[in-house]
Queue: 3 jobs
Job 1
Amino acid sequence: MLLGFRPSLRLLSPRLQLLQSRCVQSEHPATSAAVGSVLSALRSICGEGGVSFGAAVREQHGRDESIHRCCPPDVVVFPRCVEEVSALAKVCHQHNLPIIPFGTGTGLEGGVSAVKGGVCFSLRNMDQVLDLHPEDFDVAVEPGVTRKALNSYLRDTGLWFPVDPGADASLCGMAATSASGTNAVRYGTMRENVLNLEVVLADGTVLHTAGRGRRPRKTAAGYNLTNLLVGSEGTLGIITKATLRLYGIPEAMVSAVCSFPSVQAAVDSTVQILQAGVPIARIEFLDDVMMDACNRFSSLSYAVSPTLFLEFHGSERSLEEQVLTAEDITQSNGGSDFQWARDAGSRERLWKARHDAWYAALALRPGCKAYATDVCVPLSRLPQIIVETKQDLMENRLTGPIAGHVGDGNFHCLMVVEPSDPEELHRVHLFTERLARRALALDGTCTGEHGVGLGKRALLCEEVGPEAVKVMQRLKDSLDPKNLMNPGKILQ
């Protein structure tokens, strides 16, 4: 239970002492009485139960699923509406307190770590689905709504939201990190599926990036503020509402699994299927190490070899054409016959096994930690980079099963590492840097979907160049001149 108890100011925890010191150092000189005033202001906005100093609660909100160490905030607040978020932000702005937005904590780059302390805005209580317009294929959601909750809400409408990063992440958090996932090859990433955002800026100003209530499918009106905020990782503002595109549920769906004699053959098949114009919904690659891990973890019996998981959406007739073309291409590259998953239950089990790849990789070395790499390259460069990466892993004696959304050139090595072994940690660090720079050398990116967070700030500069980073910094300074919004992320 989350309790917003009132601690004695004579018995401040180290974190609250830090909060006091920040107040003293700000342009508003403060004593412990002022600290009490700040805490009273937070409680007056979201209630006694909406403010927590508990160590367990703060630690929960100081970590995500990455390998980065936990950096707890000084205090966690639980606003219930945009008005409360705005009022809380004004208090933080007045007292120079960092602001860290928190959705579900499923990120993979340390994006929620309170590296400079401050106030974590946990948005889980804002969990309403708003303004559904089925005839226009759009919906607005608050930040506590997850993708599974939205699709459950939409179940009887004939509509769905297809962006699927695997974890049951919050949709506004997915917008903040520009998430994608297994369906991106057909339906795009969050960047293509967000129509408008309601955002609270560092000073409490409420911004509607496309105008209040606007939801056109396209616009040529001014700067694209929506896409500026998508992928900003909480460094420019707190997303309090997202207007999203929806899609009709396909008439028919079918999934298949196909194994290959080599990585090259599997990835070549992927590229050729896309070049043939097959509107495939999902096409996922798992290498032999990952397939072995998934077989063990999910009690499967697929071949332990490079494998594609495929899914086709459309009418019954169009599916026949898609499947025939895909089968011809895979078999020409030495692929096996398709193993089918036709009914909803079979498809769900197949894709659950794919989504459980993280946990399957961890099970290869019980007691170890996992770190997910994330690069993306042009499709024509995909076979080269995966083959070179496999060789790099073997030469450096590293456990790194590969799984990827290869339909859009994005793949991950799920590095399983013993955190108490500094030599192995060093080898993993060097490997991940080589992988990122290998992607950059092939005209790709150091992150296709996880974001920059804490770990890829230097790589961002290498990727876009110092002039682009300077422009990003000027944008940050313009919207957040005190550097209160999730400081220490993306930019140095």
Note: Confidence is low (pLDDT under 50) at residues 1-13, 22-31.
Job 2
Amino acid sequence: MLEPHQLALHTLTLRQLASAEQAAHINGLPEADVATALDRAVADGHAITARGSYMITPAGRSHLDGLYVDAFAAIRSDDEIGAAMESFEEGVNKQVLALTTEWQTVDVDGVPTPNDHSDSDRDAKILDRLGRVLEKTRKVLAPLATADPLLDRFADRLDAALTRAEGGETDHVSGVRVDSVHTVWFQMHEHVLRLTGRERPE
């Protein structure tokens, strides 16, 4: 697996522009350690920084690609994890994407229209289905979570986002400026693709 300073840089592949605090929220490392690691990455030419935020450079991505080969060799050769990823891509990932679209739009005379969330019963049913998919996701990715505990952190963040949505904060399903289900799911998906050496499906 990755060393902590390598994981800090890896986090910038999951969120393209992040402060040390935001990166630490994703990877679970102490914020001070993340800041030190990212400053080191800047010095090495693997990241750039401006106004307290960091972004990975092409050299940083190339550096990580080289590290992944050895760091994730066991994961990439595990047949059970390979099967889990197939189930993830063809099952729960497509379901979450479909539910996100359903959450964002409603059909008005055959025309997709932005959902104003005035139909609380409809929203509640979508959230219930989304909750069941997230619960299934934990089971689907269990083999990978055994090898990489960060998966449990992603699952907990997804549950937290869903709870806030159920409490009436509708932007926590698909909002891009908050730790929404959509945002966390995108980060988790990118993370597991990098672990397993797969390409994001078109």
Note: The CA atoms of residues 149 and 174 lie 25 Å apart.
Job 3
Amino acid sequence: MGDQHKPAAPDARDFLAVDTSLDAEEGSIRDTVRDFATRELLPHVADWFEAGTIPDPRGLAKAFGDLGVFGMHLEGYGCAGTSAVAYGLACRELEAVDSGLRSFVSVQGSLAMTAIHRYGSEEQKREWLPRMAAGEAIGCFGLTEPDSGSDPGSMRTRARRDGSDWILDGTKMWITNGSVADVAVVWATTEEGIRGFLVPAGTPGFSANVIHRKLSLRASITSELVLDGVRLPESARLPGAAGLGAPLSCLNEARYGIVWGVAGAARACYEAALEYAGTRVQFGRPIAAFQLTQRKIADMVVDVNSAALTALQIGRLKDAGACHHTQVSYGKFANVAAAQRVAGAARSIHGANGITLEYPVLRHLLNLETVATYEGTEEVHALSLGQAVTGIPAFR
């Protein structure tokens, strides 16, 4: 048959040619977000990580709004209405720079905006969603509490009726963007069950305190929300949200973004290690020439491409309306673990250089420690998978 039919050698950066199955629009969105992230975010992220904050969160929000990534998978109200795969690709390219930056977008779009879009009144949607999509208003999502993480149903935040108003008391913890948010989506237990409320910044009795001394997700603003006798009108309640299923459905949207995002972090670590191994010379040879290094690289290739395939398949299922929440758990469980393995191996290949911010690998490795536990811990997703295939719940 001749050599003209011999397949081309695989691309080291997309070994299984996963991205060749993207359509033109998906490829364009990928390229647009990747170019923005490389140009506007990557040169600064190490400094932000070292400083433990985002110096200009409102400027970043406006830039993300101009890019069109806030709530991009939602329909109407200034949102782009893209496919789930397109949104996933945006998450992948952002987290290839830093998990904290993808979290900024996920919390705004998949948590706060999705809660309003799915459960809010028409007035609430019109008031908040266009401004949030444009990056002119920032939202946060208050579910987790100091003593209520994996078991949100045990939350202690309470909302009680007082005439036609509601009075909220409680504390929320580990809230991304809490101290810079214009509106907080807060979940509370009432006599009728769990309900959601929109709490605008500046409401009397509502405060947000920045959490300092983090060793992970440092290029991100994390806060504690305190509600001390916060009085809200009935119009602040999300009318469509009834029960724990409402906030959990929003969390599933955020978990979906993580499935893609960590694939980007893994790819970034792998590419950094591949380049470093090819240029770092020891014993007269680049360290990529040694068998132990090549084994690490081979394992990374498998993890990076498996994560990319997993994200794409779950995205296709989501776009077809056929994605079960346990399949998202599968993706988070598998892809976070894969990304952690890749980041750890990449750090070892970099040697002492791997612990500095001159290279991205330890920054990603530390960030992934947070990603492994938020939006459902590794253990919770393992139990979700176990129940899905055995039919036996093991949570209690």
Note: The domain at 18-133 is CATH 1.10.540.10 (Butyryl-Coa Dehydrogenase, subunit A; domain 1).
